């Protein structure tokens, strides 16, 4: 049975399908329609697919970046949304120094820290099977969600433990016309509670709620550097669409959440020791695959502070 939106659907009605992905050919544009692809002079870039994800060779993340190298890496990040670096035996301090080329670093009060408050440490061992993940964009419960993140694997399981990213500009581009017309201009509420309530005792949760109240962001944000329109709701933290009744909001959000599941918008990265990923949190969602239990998997992430979505 097709789950595509029927022609002429009225999006204010209950006809929007739950978890629907439109069928048919997809328009896969890596760049904004007015942007032209350019070559890279200071490193070798190997695309992992036609749309999202590229490996960078010839850059040593232990060394300070020159202004020209930083500019080319930023251009590659905007074009490919997530960059991968192999064989980078870097320390947490070098990881932080690399990330600071894009701005000040965030701290996350809900997650365990590594060697400093700016490093989030994700550790799973034989006694910690973990939770099944969901597609999400990091910290959209903040008024100014992260610009991006730099993740390195400290310990890699012998199999499994991949991470996937999805291009949410492509997801927006391929929405049915009726859906795009409906969601442009809408705003949604984002809250940390759905993602983190299971980790906190009630007293701590209440204090966190006072410190981090729900925030409102556009359902479709404009990327501040590329100008592309990007679908900006996610299942982990988006709770409702402002101004819609609950049934309509839930139905429309289920449809929008499902767009990250389209394989054509995705890249899947297989980690090896000393691999590093750097992604644009403004343009992507990601999903860490939980298929490696009982083997340990230890990762450390540094997040770069962002700006208010518009």
Tell me about this structure.
The chain has 310 residues and is an alpha+beta fold. The chain has one domain: 4-Layer Sandwich (Double-stranded beta-helix). Helix content is 20%, strand content 23%. The protein has helices at residues 67-80, 92-99, 168-173, 177-183, 193-196, 202-211, 246-258, and strands at residues 44-47, 54-57, 82-85, 119-124, 148-155, 163-167, 187-190, 215-218, 220-222, 229-231, 238-241, 266-269, 276-280, 284-288, 297-304. The strands form four sheets. It has a seven-stranded mixed beta sheet, with helices on one face. Strands 12-6-14 form a three-stranded antiparallel beta sheet. Strand 2, helix 1 and strand 3 form a beta-alpha-beta unit. The protein is globular, with a radius of gyration of 19 Å. The two termini are 37 Å apart. 36% of the residues are buried.
Brief overview, please?
This protein is α+β, with helices and mostly antiparallel strands. The chain is 20% helix and 23% strand.
């Amino acid at each position: 049975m097709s789950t595509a939106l029927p022609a002429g659907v009225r999006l204010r009605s209950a006809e929007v399908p739950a978890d629907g992905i439109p069928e048919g050919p997809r328009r896969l544009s890596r760049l904004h329609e007015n942007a032209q692809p350019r070559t890279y002079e200071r490193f070798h870039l190997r695309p992992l697919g036609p749309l999202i994800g590229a490996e960078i060779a010839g850059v040593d993340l232990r060394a300070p970046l020159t202004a020209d190298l930083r500019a080319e890496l930023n251009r590659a990040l905007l074009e490919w949304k997530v960059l991968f670096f192999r064989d980078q035996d870097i320390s947490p301090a070098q990881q932080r120094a690399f990330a600071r080329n894009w701005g000040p670093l965030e701290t996350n009060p809900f997650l365990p820290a590594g060697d400093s408050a700016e490093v989030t440490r994700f550790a799973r061992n034989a006694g910690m099977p973990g939770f099944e993940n969901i597609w999400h964009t990091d910290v959209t419960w903040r008024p100014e969600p992260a610009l991006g993140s730099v993740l390195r694997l400290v310990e890699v399981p012998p199999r499994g433990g991949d991470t996937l990213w999805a291009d949410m500009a492509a997801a927006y581009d391929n929405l049915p016309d009726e859906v795009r017309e409906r969601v442009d201009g809408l705003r949604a509420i984002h809250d940390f509670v759905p993602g983190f309530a299971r980790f906190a005792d009630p007293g701590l949760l209440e204090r966190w709620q006072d410190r981090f109240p729900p925030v409102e962001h556009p359902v479709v944000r404009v990327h501040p550097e590329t100008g592309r329109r990007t679908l900006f709701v996610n299942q982990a933290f988006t709770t409702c669409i402002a101004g819609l009744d609950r049934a309509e909001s839930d139905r429309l959000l289920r449809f929008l959440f499902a767009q990250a599941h389209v394989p054509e918008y995705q890249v899947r990265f297989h980690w090896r020791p000393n691999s590093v990923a750097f992604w644009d949190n403004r343009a992507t969602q990601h999903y860490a695959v939980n298929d490696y239990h009982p083997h340990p998997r230890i990762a450390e992430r540094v997040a770069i502070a962002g700006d208010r979505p518009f």
